[in-house]
């Protein structure tokens, strides 16, 4: 859990320190801009930018029932972030498993990737796809009811 928040908190702390330095040098406008940029980076690289994660076992159960892909991801991964934002609102239609919060999810990813925790790994109908094109993933989603 703390590992997922380490990078976002580092962004916020560094942004705060830089903002304080700008304020002491007499540039409150630059301080505000720096702080806003670093807080936004913190939010983007935090688990907040992703749909709510579930456990690997629950994701597999739900995927078997509704045919939707499972996405194994971790906070701070730029490729996971790229997939999330390129999917847009469709991202909520997938089952997301944070491998840093779920050891079973991490084990699934290692089994699919020869021992490596390479994410995003998308599992569709039991077959893993490592870092797939977001357009391809969008095309694999079942039609909306």
From TrEMBL:
<protein>
    <recommendedName>
        <fullName>Glutaredoxin domain-containing protein</fullName>
    </recommendedName>
</protein>
<keyword id="KW-0732">Signal</keyword>
<feature type="domain" description="Glutaredoxin">
    <location>
        <begin position="71"/>
        <end position="127"/>
    </location>
</feature>
<dbReference type="InterPro" id="IPR002109">
    <property type="entry name" value="Glutaredoxin"/>
</dbReference>
<dbReference type="InterPro" id="IPR036249">
    <property type="entry name" value="Thioredoxin-like_sf"/>
</dbReference>
<feature type="signal peptide">
    <location>
        <begin position="1"/>
        <end position="21"/>
    </location>
</feature>
<keyword id="KW-0472">Membrane</keyword>
<keyword id="KW-1133">Transmembrane helix</keyword>
<feature type="transmembrane region" description="Helical">
    <location>
        <begin position="29"/>
        <end position="50"/>
    </location>
</feature>
<dbReference type="Pfam" id="PF00462">
    <property type="entry name" value="Glutaredoxin"/>
</dbReference>
<keyword id="KW-0812">Transmembrane</keyword>
């Amino acid at each position: 859990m703390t590992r997922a928040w380490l990078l976002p908190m580092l962004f916020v702390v560094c942004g705060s320190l830089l903002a304080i330095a700008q304020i002491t040098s007499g540039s409150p406008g630059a301080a505000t801009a720096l702080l806003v940029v670093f807080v936004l980076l913190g939010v983007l690289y935090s688990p907040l930018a992703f749909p709510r994660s579930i456990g690997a076992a629950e994701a597999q159960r739900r995927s078997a029932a509704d045919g939707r892909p499972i996405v194994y991801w971790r906070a701070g991964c730029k490729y996971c972030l790229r997939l999330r934002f390129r999917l847009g609102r469709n991202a909520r239609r997938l089952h997301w498993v944070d491998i840093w919060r779920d050891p079973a999810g991490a084990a699934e990813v290692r089994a699919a990737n020869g021992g490596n925790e390479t994410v995003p790994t998308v599992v569709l109908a039991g077959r893993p796809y490592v870092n797939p094109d977001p357009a391809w993933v969008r095309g694999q989603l079942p039609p909306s009811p």
